[in-house]
Structure formats: structure tokens, C-alpha cells
Amino acid sequence: MHIPDGFLDAQVSVVAGVVAVAGIAVCLRGSRRTLDERTAPLAGLVAVFIFAAQMLNFPVGAGTSGHLIGAALAAILVGPYAGALAVTVVLTVQALFFADGGLTALGLNIVNMALIASVVAWFAFRAVVKTLGRTKPTVLFAAWLAGLLSVLGAVSGFMVEFAFGGTTAISLSSVTAAMFSVHVVIGIIEGVITALVVWAVASVRPDLVTGLRDIEQPQRSSTQQPEGATA
Amino acid sequence: MRMTTDMGETTHKAVAWLMLAGLALSLVMAGFISYYASSSPDGLESVAESEGFIDSAQDSATVGSPLSDYGLVNVTDERLSVGLAGVIGVAITFIVALGLFYLLTVGKRRKPASDSIQESSGG
């Protein structure tokens, strides 16, 4: 999903750049408020893991591959502000050092894959866990759905940008259909990876999962003493 | 001055273990497994090819950099080239991200008030 230079015109790229800078500013303030000395190193680790995971393209259908975006994972683990920043760091390192994603397209990529994807994933995850209650299956499902929707959110961002600033005059509906059909598959896999990693961290230290904060686990039994009920 | 004890030894240990395990996993992924990753075009690239706008792509200004396209320059062995590029990328990301998030929490070492009730009585 890394947009190279040239796909989108200068105006849309500049607008996205401005939106990206504003979004990063909001995330810096939000991260400063929400991170503490336990979660700050975790946010750094999340960025490192996303960089590594994005090198692992998996095949999706004939002649096409996909890789994790990681914004859903990041948002659920360290919150939407720090999560978006972690993805932003990865995208910037990739654009500057690895020629992956264009330089003039960096703002576009940050808007789609860091900002939109993190926000969508955060609200999806929290809404599902709050609505269905905090149990292992619902947390897994919420993480999976957040992963899928984060990818579709990023694709939606790209389609809006392409509609306004695509440099090639082609059928928008055809590109939209092709983009969504490929990325539904990628999003399903993104969801599975997100759910697995969230489950792995939550089973070791659930208190470190920012997305589960302030959501109580339902009591096992109302008549029993709660102390020592769960390990 | 440093308040290492107020958040508990176990939490420190858990964070340290999680960091070590996560870092090791990331190094294995970027340094070793990356060689086996699919080299097919990704979703966007593939759509751009089939829909006919791939030719509007231009080379990034950083395309001549030593790590360009996830291969270390002048290393002919492909496995080594992508593996080294991956490890260097992990190192760069680690330094930048950890530095950024550390700076964001400087001067803010206390946990939120609700979590440090005992501490306030102890002075």
C-alpha cells in the first residue's frame, strides 16, 4: 500500500502533507499525555516489529502480495496516538533509507496507513470489546475486525486521494473495485496477525494492552469472592 | 532520584522480557525470514499494473541509497544482502522510535495519580 511518487499530483500530495503534519502534532501531544515509562519502550518495540513484519510479503492470489500495515496492532497495544507515531516512524525510515514509498508521497502514506488506519482500528476494537464484553473470543474477534477495517480505511483514503489527484485519467469505479477486492484479502490476513499478536501480549501482560484499559473483565461468579479468581 | 521501585519489580521484568523477545523476533523476521518473502507486486502495485497506471510511478529520490529496495549495496549474495538490510533497518527504526518515545516521556516519570496512592502517603 506504499504509494510511490508520481501516482498522485502535487496539490493532493501537499494537502496530504499538511494533514500529516497536523496529525503528527496531535499524536505527539496525545502520546505525551498517554505514554508512561512502561508503555514508551513498548511503543518503540511496536515500531521495530512493524518494520520487520512489513518486509514479509505474503502471496494473495496470483502474482500479487501483501504485507502487514501494523496500525491496528500498534493502536490496540499502545493507543491510537503512539500507534500512529510508530507507523509514521516506520514509513519515514522506509521512504528515506529503503526507497519504499515515495518522498513526495510520504504525507499521503502517513495519512492512509498511520493516521486513518490507527483511528479506525482503535474505535473498532474498543467498540466491539465494550459492546460484546471483554472475553478472550471477543478480544480476538475485535482485534481481527480492527485489522481488517484498518486496511479498508487506508484503501478508502487512497481512493479519495486518487479521485482528486490521480495523474492518470482512468475509470475510478474500476480502480476502486480492484483496490477493495485485493485489500479485503490482505485485510483479513492483517486481522489474523493482529489478533494473534494482541492475544500473545494480552496473555502475558494484559495490563500493557492500552486498548483494554478501563474495560473490566466480567466477574466469573457473583457469589464467589473475586480475589484470586483469575491468575 | 529515579523511581524504579514504585512500579514494581515484576512489571520492569515483564517489560524487559517483552522487549528482548520482541526485538529478537523482529531481527529474525527482518534478517532471515525476509529472504523467503513473496517478491510479487503488492496490492496497490498489482492494481496499478492491471488498471494501467503503473507507468505514472516515478523513482523515489532515495532510490540510489545504499539500502534501496531492501538490499545492501555491493553485497552480491541475495540472502545476505536482504538480511543485512533488514537488520540495519531494524536498528535504525529501533533508535529513532525508542528515542522519540523516550523524549516524549522525559520529565513525566510518574504514573497517573490513580495508580500511585500508596506512594503519596509515603512521600
Explain what the structure shows.
The complex is a heterodimer of chains A (231) and B (123). Chain A has 231 residues and is an all-alpha fold. Chain A has a single domain, classed as Arp2/3 complex 21 kDa subunit ARPC3 (Orthogonal Bundle), CATH 1.10.1760. Chain A is 68% helix and 2% strand. Chain A has helices at 10-34, 39-54, 71-78, 80-97, 106-132, 136-165, 172-204; strands at residues 58-59, 65-66. Chain A has a two-stranded antiparallel sheet. In chain A, a hairpin with a 5-residue loop joins strand 1 and strand 2. In chain A, helix 3 (71-78) crosses helix 5 (106-132) and helix 3 crosses helix 6 (136-165). The termini of chain A are far apart. With 123 residues, chain B is mostly helical. Chain B has a domain at 25-35 and 67-108. Chain B is 54% helix and 0% strand. In chain B, helix 1 (9-31) runs antiparallel to helix 3 (78-105). The two termini of chain B are 13 Å apart. The model of chain B is unreliable at 1-6 and 113-123 (pLDDT under 50). At the A-B interface, helix 1, helix 2, strand 1, strand 2 and helix 4 of A face helix 1, helix 2 and helix 3 of B.
Instruction: Give the termini separation of chain A.
Output: 41 Å
Estimate what percentage of residues of chain B fall within beta strands. under 5%
Number of helices of chain A: 7
* Approximate shape of chain A: globular
Give the radius of gyration of chain A: 18 Å
H-E string of chain B: HHHH
Order of helices and strands of chain A: HHEEHHHHH
Name the chain pair with the biggest interface and residue counts per chain: A-B, 73 and 64 residues
The CATH topology assignment of chain A is: Arp2/3 complex 21 kDa subunit ARPC3
Kindly state the percentage of residues in helix of chain A.
55-70%
Report on the biggest sheet of chain B.
Answer: none
Descriptive keywords:
heterodimer, A: 231 residues, mainly alpha, Arp2/3 complex 21 kDa subunit ARPC3, two-stranded antiparallel ribbon, 2 strands, globular, B: 123 residues, 4 helices, disordered N terminus
